[in-house]
Amino acid sequence: MSPKRPPRLLTSPSRRLLKLGGLVGKVGASVVGERAAELVRSGPGKEIKRAENLVRNAVRVVETLGEMKGAAMKVGQMLSLHVGMLPPEVAEVLRALQREAPRVPPEVMRYEVEGSLGAPIDELFAEFEEEAFAAASIGQVHRARMHDGRPVAVKIQYPLIREVVQADLKNLKTLMKSLFSMVFDADFEPMWREMNEVLLEELDYEHEATNMERMRELHADVPEIVIPRVIPERSSDRVLTMEFLEGVSAEAACSEAFSQEERNRWGEVLLELEMRGLFEHRLLHADPNLANFSFLEDGRVIVYDFGCLKRVPEQIAAGYARLFLAVAEDRRREIPGVLAEIGLTRADGSSIPLELIEPYIDLFAEILREEPPYRFGEDEDLYERVMELGMANWSQATDMRFPEDIIFIDRSLAGHFGNLIRFRAAGPWRELVARHARAAVGDH
Question: What does pTM read for this prediction?
Answer without folding.
Answer: 0.77
